[in-house]
Give the backbone structure.
Amino acid sequence: MGKEKDDIFRNSADKIEKREISEELQESYLDYAMSVIVSRALPDVRDGLKPVHRRILYSMFESGFTHGNKFHKSANVVGEVLGKYHPHGDASVYDALARMAQDFSLRYPMVEGQGNWGSIDGDGPAAMRYTEARLSLIAEELLKDLDKDTIDFQENYDGTKKEPKVLPAKIPYLLINGTSGIAVGMATNIPPHNLSEVCDATNHLIEHPDATTTDLLGFVKGPDFPTGGIIYNKKAIGEAYSTGRGSITVRAATEIQERKSGQFDIIVSEIPYMVNKSELLEKIAELVQDKKIDGIKDIRDESDKDGLRVVIQLKSDSQPQKVLNNLFKHTDLQKDFHMNMLALVDGLQPQILSLKSVLENYIKHREVVVRRRCEFELRKAEARKHILEGLDIALSNIDAVIKVIKTSKSREEAHDSLMKKFKLSSIQADAILEMRLQTLVGLERQKIQDELKQKIKEINDLKAILKDAKKILKIVKDELNEVKEKFGDERRTKVMASAVGEFKEEDLVPAEENIFLMSQDGFIKRVQPTIVKAQHRGGKGVIGFETKEEDNIQHIFQANTHDNLLFFTKKGRVFQLKAYEIPMASRTSRGKSIFNFLELPQNEEIAAILTYNGKPTDLKNSHLVMLTKNGVIKKTSLDEFSAVRRSGLIAIKLKGNDELLWAKSVDDKDEIIILTANGQALRFKESELRAMGRNASGVTGIRLKKGDEVRGFDILKSGDEKTATLLVVMANGFGKRTSVKEYRLQKRSGQGTKTAKITDKTGKIASSQILMPDIKEVLVISKKGILIKTELESISEQSRVTQGVRIIKLEGGDEVAGIVCL
């Protein structure tokens, strides 16, 4: 026994090879790394699949678990894959199978499932014994023509079966569903895309091989995630697709909605790809609890089978856009997708690929598949043609054939005799011997001859295709169009051209015209112009503002949500806001106090609001003109207001009991029209005003008679005199339009000319505005918040010394507060 052991050890020692440990470790590590890279972690650029996914799809196809058949237990699928092709753990196979069935993970699921397959909340699928699966219809396009020698097969792990090295892949899977994986020393992360866009880009590249990635981005707009969302910055997207790597910003689809109570909700309907909804809501709740985000009252998950819906209820004093910006900044409502288009080229070489390279490799693969399919079909057609030719010879000499067969002692003798006498091949002789008697019927003979003609034509067509590479590419293109027609759909992820950059609220607020209303007590809101339907002149209007007793509407104006607002107080100070910072509200709501937005002293009242687009520094040649109740006017460069502090700046120095009432922008060669409460109007050129600094007091604009005050102020643009009219509205709801040509040019500081017949019936002048022909409607609001919108054509054009017509019928004690022309 001892001797036998010694012999064993001696023989083993003879087989030991001495090596440097560093060389052995290096070689072993590289072997392991390449095994992980090629056989586990990275997809093949040709069919877009990793080995485990390829084996699952092939095994299901081979086992008959196709779309047209019934569902089968997932445990059965996993067992087939493990037993035949994938010698790894069952958990890894089932996880891969489950992911291919999840419509929130794959843009185009490859597996149809029954049962619980997990959720966007991070719930895992039920155990494999509970779920059932079969191939989806689109998955079968990956496997089509597998039996036509289109691809190479290799032995499975134990050499008992054959498995495909790559699938024929009629669909460009790598791009439409993307993939992610971590190998040794490298990783891949490819987003999903829209099938229609990828097919169009591939076809374009087939027709224009010299096309650049930039050209292809005219078709592929960017990733198209199954969970939707919004992606930003076309420039960054283009760079990522050109280099094969880059970062793409994805934001959730959100909407700010107002409740009946006047409070706001943030509605989340789509979240970024691969974000766990439950963890996202937990993170938001944690931030609220830690007071890192203010203004959130409650969070509700109202998601159901119809889609995702998360309601973030806001507090009454919160600013919705600011809350939303903080959510984007601190949670996965905004997330970067780090794209790294790494895939195996020719099944062996890992490469980072541009969009064009991915499509080129796919086209090359499809060319090979179509060529090999044509060659297979050609061989099959030629074999059938060969047999048909033999049958045709036999039928043409049927009597002689029958005689040979009858006189032969055995099948072998008949076989050899037929070959010698009619110069047939062995295959043709076998076909004749197996021919049924019914083939002798006239119709059957004709079928054979027709089939022979058809096979000859098919062979000629296939040979023509194989000789012409352009025809092969046309087939590739036609088949892509078939796939697009069958499975193409609309894009789910929106693409925004601009970059997100810093968290600017403009990126989230649509640029649109709004109406802004502000009461005497400082409650302000913005509303859509469409909330008030047009009425006939003289109507009673509708409620447009919930005012309390002794609180009247003081300001009404129109502005774009991206405009800047300068708020001038009666004491001559100026404050600044962006228009979108004023919350959107319903027609009847009271709005929010201006003290929520401006550091305004309690004893100051907003007198005038100026809107402008862009930065003051962009408008160095523009000026604003301020006008006081006592007729003092002042022109100052808008550039003086380039840095308005939160606590405000001095805009004009006032004297005595005077109050600032108006501020408007003015350009060179414009004209100014001032109206008084008692019906006087003065028109003069802006050039009569010299520009002054912010601390200046101004000069006399119009000389007022005792008891009179300024009620109207507007700017007539250069060249508009011929077509412009002046709308004058009186306190009791009367108004009229008068051609500006009726107001002669005068010198500044004059008393002006008569502009309206003021009576107890009409009341004093309340407001005025210069109109151009493109202005079609006027919105009038009373001090008690009643609104009316009417067409300007219904307000007749009259001479200066008239009282006008009734525009709005007001209740006792109510007066016109202001107008906005739309």
Remarks:
- The longest helix spans residues 355-396.
- The CA atoms of residues 98 and 117 lie 6 Å apart.
